[in-house]
Batch of 3 targets.
Target 1
Amino acid sequence: MQGNLKKLDFSSFAVQLKELVSAQLGEEFELYLHTAAKNNGGLREGIVVRKKEERVTHSIYLELYYKKYIKNVELENIAVEFVEAYSQAALNNLPEAEVLEDFNKIRENIFFRLVNYQKNEDVLRDVPFLKFLDLAITFHCLVQNKKDYISSLRITNRHLEGWGINIKILTEVAKDNTPRIFPASIRTMEEILGGFSLAADNINRMYVISNGTGINGASCLLYKDVINVLAEELNGNLFILPSSIHEIIVIKDDGFVGKDELVDMVKDVNLTQVAEEDFLSDSVYYYSADEQRIMKA
């Protein structure tokens, strides 16, 4: 029984799984191991599968498969699961490479995201980006926007060169598209907690801003009119807390809470509750209603 045998380490597991999958798919496919960069410098191991006459590749990551292996699922059964996952991905094919070579065919799908600048410096060397405070605005092409998952491709400097455009055009397109593709959602913390109020008489009421999918919703910070309209409704300046890459929290500056207290709170939440790949920043930001400008607090 497999449970009585010494387990393969992750690298050996990946190699053997690749060989089993390759045997199942046959000679018309090529496979190779691939290490992908995640947000904030993390790494993710996967197997890339490509049908030889096609230019589209599918990356399927191995962490969940390895966890099953550790729990004594047979390697051969995991290979079968992997092939099924690939077949499903192939049914929902990514755009052909020729489509990605034509900017006009994908311009409606281009959107932006916000990430931490310092933690992503290695990735940012190869992609167009804009610096924003201690963050970076990166650009992506939406491939699939399903109820259960989103697929996208990170736009690289090579894409820009092939399209013959500059980052100014890319930014203008993304600024128009992102709010349309991922509309902003603003809820009070009270609404999220099902009616439990954290504030008395609306003092220090927290507003959670994300998008409808709840994925990479911190980008709503850059939407035109989201922050300034909220500031108008609350009739004051705002503290902005970077909860994660998926959402931000906004609190009116009413004099009852200070910057240092909020910075301590953000750091504690990041340390204890936010996964490394979801981290956005330890900073607290400030929106001045008079200047209509976001700055570091």
Note: The domain at 2-93 is CATH 3.30.160 (Double Stranded RNA Binding Domain).
Target 2
Amino acid sequence: MATPKTIAFHTLGCKLNFSETSSLARQFRQRGYTPVSFQSGADIYLINTCSVTDRADQKCRQVVRRALRLSPNAKIVVTGCYAQLKPEEIAAIPGVDLVLGAAEKFRAADYVEQLEKSTDKGLIRAGEINRINLFEPAWSFGDRTRSFLKVQDGCDYKCTFCTIPRARGQSRSSSIEDLVQAAEQLAAAGVKEIVLTGVNIGDFGKGTEVLEGRRQPHQALFIDLIRALDEVEGIARYRISSIEPNLCTEEIIAFVASAKRFAPHFHMPLQSGSNAILRKMRRRYTAELYVERVQLIKKYMPHACIGVDVISGFPGESEKHFLETYQLLHSLEVSYLHPFTYSERPNTPAAAMPGQVPFAERQNRTKQLQVLSEKKRRSFYQAHLGQIRPVLLEHHQPAGGFTDNYIRVELPETTLPAGELCPVLLRSLTADGQVLASPQKELTTENPG
């Protein structure tokens, strides 16, 4: 290139998307492009989209308009799950120059270089999702205190509400050797915490090898991966981003409890506390199994944090079904909820199911779950006051960060730099739910990291 081009990135959606955007930024930097902030006004904008909610199109349009206001002559490139599912819809958004599907995403630099020689708008490069059988590595670095490390992609589950299998393809994984090497590189670069991400990370090991165009069976299991990662020197702690309850085995729970570096923090999707609704969703567990998993985690780690995804207003969910969910969550020793209002996704079985719940009622149920979540979070925080726990400091004023068991704290008295891992005393809970803490010299044996 005659003159260096600037490129700005915007990520919508999950931790997996953040890891992939960060990897794309490194690719463009290696090609001579200069990554800049979104607000700086760039020559090229790359938007990595999500498809989980029905607002994907609205959010994408908003970001495109913002980019063009900042840089009217910029080239606009859109990729990600929404781009794979609805490329024509995105290509029709005014200002979009190029749409890249799931397989094409990791060749974005090649396509952008071709785009710069073209005057066409709304170009689409999105192949069939069933052709994707290779794992593309990704991890974030330099844009956050911690790193998101992608260990698995795609999903073989057939949940009736979900578009992810059509957006990301079949389940496939990296190898243990490659992930250990990536963790070692991140440790050498000064990263203290790694969050393991994927679409269905408990399914790790499937599709690690492809022979004659076919994915091979599991070459390893998730338990094998976390055992290997736990031995990497220099990483202070790992978090498991989310794991299906049927795949969160007692073996995994027991290992995390005894591990040197794995945080006592689990995020397990429930989606519904009603077995009738779970069957409609085609989830692979019952409410009883979910309860068993929560009890196992608390048996091994009473101080563990447990987060829960839950969907309100799924087709056929009566008031009785919703109350089953609410009462189950109220009784469980979980720490916080991520409630989602059900939204119809095109071409999913759930969208055509009878018994669609009025949208206002879906939102009302979500609000009830949000209130319950806040009560759960405050109760969890309150139970740990007076303890000393390790915190990874982050950039903000006042200084703060997360404990190993995912308690958000503020440290108004500290001048320690971001990236520092230090023990703190959890002193008090403010009216708005913030935990105030003070740095300590060392951890007590009663409150290990």
Note: Confidence is low (pLDDT under 50) at residues 444-449.
Target 3
Amino acid sequence: MEAFLAKFFKFKERGTDLRTEVVAGIATFLTMAYIIVVNPQILSKTGMSFSGVLFATVLVSSISSILMGLYANLPYALAPGMGINAFFTYVIVKEMGVPWQTALGVVFVSGIIFVILSVTKVRAKIVESVPANLRYAVASGIGVFIALIGLKEVGFIKTSPDTLVTFGGFDPYTVLFLAGLLIVSILVVKRIRGALVLGIVMNSILALIVTKVGMSQGLLDKPIVVPPKAVLNLPDFSVFLKLNVLDALTIGMIPPIFTLLFTDMFDSISTFLGVAHVAGLIDKRGQPINIDRALLVDALATTVSGLSGTSSATTYIESAAGVEEGGRTGLTAVVAGLLFLPFMFFSPILSFVPSVATAPILVIVGVFMAQALKNIDWKIMDEAIPAFVAFLMIPLSYSITQGISWGFLTYTAIKLLTGKSKDLNLTLIVIDIFAILALFLVSKA
């Protein structure tokens, strides 16, 4: 079996082995497993069944990740996208008053359009048109974005009316986060294999100990880790195949379809670019390998999302955790996808892994991805300025799409106004037009 897997996934060509790929798959899964609970929490505010969306989330994440591994042979896992689920809930359903069944139809239609764009190689051309310095900036910006998510999850930083963000102060969560960050940092510095996975396990155990002691001594108002009340949950099919495609094909649904299309497209493309450069999975032209197949899988994942009963799936930036563990083939994605499956039935077990255990991992992954900044040519200002704008806007706007859109627009404007229009191409101009439309629609929403 190991020989077959080595040949099928090309272990030798990618410089990896079975153990490394399995550990990488576990790392990827653990850093993105939060979506199993978080996605239903957000989408249930539309009136959808929490358990129904949970089943859809697990189903989509598993199928699409396994397909990415088997068809594209890339270590990228997929799941319903954060940000996209918020757009689905708060804009399409709550603000526009669209029934969730029709909103699922919108997801499905956008997926079909994705498939067409992928099969006709339009999406691949879009990837190739992204300037190299912008790619490095996006990769680094995503890294800071990941770290920001981790810091925010545990309250280490919080919003401030005066300074936008500020230190959140000391409490059991932030102290545990600092301890966990130190543990993971030492494991990484010592180059311990499986450092991120081991860090999550150790941090979870530490959180459990602190909870037990703190609650027994009256030092905590509430437990940090809540043991699951049940182990088994049967799948809920209440939102499965409940989409309304006919109402999604009306004129009024064009703006949400377009915005969803644009946001999903550039979330996935920027993730491909960022993680591929970190993993070294690029060809001689500097393009991500197997990008055509990867984009097709990503498109199919969005289509399956609408059918299953959840917002659009996309390639996850947390895939960088598996890449940093040495994952270089599709087996990493397959392992991550398979690990989702049991939680169709055993979802309560995930409550044992608290955010204070995973947040330090996100910060460390941010460190790894930010290394791409060194590849930017900071002495060429017409390249450096747009790259910096993209890098800065991703975490500050809390949106990968905003970052890459403003990076594109700044790049084009500077090139045109400084007489360097030869550095532009038709695809990039078309992207700029769609970026302006998407930004306008988002601002109106």
Note: The longest helix spans residues 254-279.
